[in-house]
Amino acid sequence: MDNDTIVAISTPPGEGGIGIIRLSGKESLSIGTRIFVPSVYLKKNIDKKEKFSPLGRRLYHGFIIDEEGRKVDEVLFCYMKAPYTYTREDIVEINAHGGIVCLNTILNLILRKGARLAEPGEFTKRAFYNGRIDLVQAESVLSLIRAKTEKGLKAAMGGLQGYLSEEVRKLRDDLADILSEIEVNVDFAYEDQDLEEGSYYDIKKRLINLNNSMLKLLQKRRQGKILQDGLKTVILGKPNVGKSSLYNYFLKEERAIVTEIPGTTRDLLIDYVNLKGVPLKIFDTAGFRKEGDRVEKIGMKFSKKAIEEADLLLFMLDASAGITEEDRWIYSKINNKKEQKIIILLNKIDLAKKICGNELKYIFNCDKVIEISLLNGDGLEELERAINEMFSAGDLYSEESVLVLEVRQGELIKKCADHIQEALNAISSGFPLDIISIDLRSAIDSLDEVIGENLAEDILDLIFSRFCIGK
Ligand SMILES: Nc1nc2c(ncn2[C@@H]2O[C@H](COP(=O)(O)OP(=O)(O)OP(=O)(O)O)[C@@H](O)[C@H]2O)c(=O)[nH]1
Ligand SMILES: [Mg+2]
Prior knowledge:
By secondary structure, this protein is α/β, with parallel strands linked by helices. The chain folds into three domains: 6-119, Gyrase A, domain 2 (2-Layer Sandwich), CATH 3.30.1360.120; 140-226 and 406-452, Up-down Bundle (Four Helix Bundle (Hemerythrin (Met), subunit A)); 230-392, Rossmann fold. Helix content is 47%, strand content 17%. The strands form two sheets. Strands 3-4-5-6-2-1-7 form a seven-stranded mixed beta sheet. The chain has a six-stranded mixed beta sheet with strand order 9-10-8-11-12-13, with helices on both faces. Bound molecules: guanosine-5'-triphosphate and magnesium ion (MG). Guanosine-5'-triphosphate is lined by residues 239-245, 258-260, 262-265, 287, 347-348, 350-351, 373-375. The site of guanosine-5'-triphosphate has 22 residues, from helix 9.
């Protein structure tokens, strides 16, 4: 790893009250003190060249001065001495005014003094390399920044505090225990003398237990994804049933255009809402119809993709129109994925109804049908409750299961579970011990990768490149 001194603007771009520039590395203090003059120096007329040696973890008021001696900004300066810092290196943070030009001027000044612009995630990467956090914790930092709800935040915080690492490490140690027991036997066993019957049974039992814990952890993968990315919720139906009206209702603003002209929405609209703690990533789609102009057809293509990837489909019909061929056609297209949940919405019940919810339940063989009116608000609370119940039920949000698995972590744990399963199969088939030990070794390697042990540098680079600059 490079050990040069890095710098970045750590606050988001744009105007803000303050903006923070962060330096990390050996030269942080010397670079920082070369561009900063504390206000007491100016007041007491102390020569700028007299060395300013700040105490650690104190905020000093003063000015950033450029090469020509001009004041660039009025700031607060803080020095944090290694190793008790985010990166475990010397850190200097400058709280400047939050304008982009102002921050860039200071940044450029620091670059001219010899610091290097940090890559995305490089501060966190250093924290990892310097042993302050493991890879699971580092990835939790990312989840923490991206959390969309309080529950997501809590889950990420659990990861950062090391709960997930702890679980993974425990599984790893158990596996290593079993492996060493087997290896002792491989080393000492005579050609024709393998493990005793009882030990075989014991190892098998322990492996089955491990596998179960692993599967439990994996169950949380989808949940974690929902907490992080939001529950992908797609509103669909034929044109003019009221999809965009529902989208606007969720967003509490007139985001999508609503008119009585069928085919109003042509683009896919996407936004996030927090529905009483359930994060929804909500999609408004172009109405589906068999015939449509060129633009509508493109819109429908986007809708199809969104529907493919959805967790929850809100299929909407118009009560005043009754059920049409088009409705049946759309339903036949969506009702084929087990993991997708569907709620059927019968909208416009304020008008004369040609069909009722119970009939729809029967026709579509679906028990989640809700009658609503976006005009007068009927049924909308019931809809919100239904979504909430669907995803608050079970252990999705129970207190002890708030752990988020990153996709990468989930895949590795799945790989580990597969290797354990192979080991179990090998035991059942009476294969020799050294074959079983190979499977177990691979299982352990997968878990090591989760926490970032023995991971190749390029893979680590890839992981940290997903971070934002300045983190
Ligand atoms: N009476 C009544 N009219 C509604 C209701 N919901 C929506 N509308 C009206 O139905 C028309 C179509 O609403 P939209 O929300 O644009 O429907 P859409 O499904 O998005 O339509 P497309 O984008 O064309 O596919 C508008 O004139 C709405 O005001 C309702 O509950 N009752
Ligand atoms: Mg629309």
